[in-house]
Amino acid sequence: MKEGFLIGGGLVFAGLALQLSVGPVVWEAFSWPANGIVLAGFLAIIALIFILRKKVYAFQFVGTYQAAIPAMVYAVVLTVIMGLTRQQVGGTWLNNMLSFWPFVLVYVYIAVILGVIILRRLNRMVNGQRSMVKDIAFLLNHLGLFIALTTATLGNADMQRVKMITAVGEPEWRALTQEGAVKEMEIAIELKKFIMETYDDGSPKRFASEIQILTKTGKNIETIVDVNKPYEVDGWKIYQYGYDTQMGAESQISILELVSDPWLPWVYAGFHMMLAGAAIMTLMVLWRRLKNATSKALGVYFGLFVIASLFAYFFFDSYNTKTLVPALQSPWFAPHVFVYIFAYTLLGVAVVIAWWKLTDDLVYVSLAFLTIGMLFGALWAKEAWGHYWSWDPKETWAAITWLAYLVYIHYRQIPRHRERLALWMLIGSFVLLQMCWWGINYLPSAQGSSVHTYSLSE
After folding, report:
1. What is the torsional sign of CA 294, 297, 301, 306?
2. 84, 17 Cβ separation under 8 angstroms
């Protein structure tokens, strides 16, 4: 463990040295084909570490819990700093953590550890040293995370996001990049009609745009772009972004966001692998506990799940009775909220029971539901706003909570670990969960910058 923390500390100091000498990370430099070359080199380094692991002690150490746990602790600490400070492009070191070298190096190190551990498990699987079911669940979770993490990071430089202001009766070819530059597009969009529906109190219930799309390839398409219902053409997804709020339903313009994300299929492949892995992990834990359980234990398990389900249902029902803003009117809303609250409830029960006995199975099941809820949210965000993960303050604290529970379950795998320390890890993780659930609403870093702090009645 000491070696692991020393390595993490060394990465932080190395990152600070890079920050002082070369400045922040310039992600734009990793656009294609540079990101493809970097990915190939990164995979080659991981393979080399795995091949030489028996000859070089440092390489053998990389694939251990003693390396993974400190790395995740450093990631939690740095991400907490990110969650407490307002993030902005071009900000100071701590206000632009995505370009802060220590933050980047720690996450790269985690990706290296992930890659080596995956190869070790594949090697054991081929040699028949492990349970096939356990191997499948393990690989789906770890390989899915590795694929999503690497492709989302390196593919970010190839993602294009532009905003187009369309007006009634005027085809528009030009759009504004995130840097404010004018970009001529290969498609033109003409607003035919702006559509708006309101609740009785006048708040927006729905807003959409009836548009005509013209492409240089000769396509002429008439469609409606709605919030949560983008339209895809020639590699671009068109999202309903905004309108003239002063004119309201009489708006003669509509602001559309166009997103091109060529690496998205790889990221989605990682997401779906993690979803499958989380589901299998849940079934494995339940089967292991239930197959030899006494009738009394079965009653306890059943009662816990009923309580968690009822709490999640009533909490969700309180949301569903409110007037929802257009972004919340999505088929992803119900599963995202329900699964998260179910996980929160089980984790709360785990903390209470932990005073008498550490409850790993509850944490495993809860972590699986946290993973599912987080991925549902990412898929929903992609349909609603065009990005699956933007390090919004709520997303940042969700990542912190998820990493904290990963630290706990990995620490519990170490022989001769200290149970009292594990208990405090569980309690600390639950405190971080409270920040993710409701504490985020009171953080200055989230005010005016988070899409998760809106009022449901607005």
Report:
1. positive
2. no
Determine if the pTM surpasses 0.85. Answer: yes
- Distances in Å between the Cα of 109 and the Cα atoms of 4, 11, 122, 141 are 11, 9, 20, 18
- Cα separation of the two ends of the chain: 49
Cβ pair 328, 199 in contact under 8 A: no
Q: Is 242 helix (H, G, I), strand (E, B) or coil?
A: strand
- Identity of the residue numbered 345: T
User: Could you please report the per-residue DSSP string of 434-452?
Assistant: HHHHTGGGG-TTTTTT-TT
Question: Which comes out higher in pLDDT, residue 325 or 16?
Answer: 16
Q: Which two structure tokens, joined as six digits, stand for 139?
A: 């690989």
Q: What is the largest CA-CA distance in the chain?
A: 72
Residue 414 phi/psi, 5-degree rounding, is -80, 125
User: What are the percentages of helix, strand and coil residues in the chain, rounded to 5?
Assistant: 60, 15, 25
The contacts of residue 457 (CB under 8 Å, 6+ apart) are 201, 203, 322, 323
- C-beta separation of 391 from 426 below 8 A: no
Residues 102-126: pLDDT tens digits?
Answer: 999 999 999 999 999 999 999 888 8
The alpha carbon of residue 30 and the mean position of all alpha carbons in its chain are separated, in whole angstroms, by 21
**Mean local confidence (pLDDT), 396-424:** 93
204 upstream amide cis, omega within 30 of 0: no
Distances (CA, A) of 90 to 78, 85, 99, 261, 361: 18, 14, 9, 23, 44
What's the mean per-residue pLDDT of the chain?
89
Q: Alpha carbon of 235 to those of 35, 155, 221, 267: distances in Å?
A: 20, 15, 15, 16
- Crossing angle of helices 101-126 and 132-155, in 10° steps, is 150
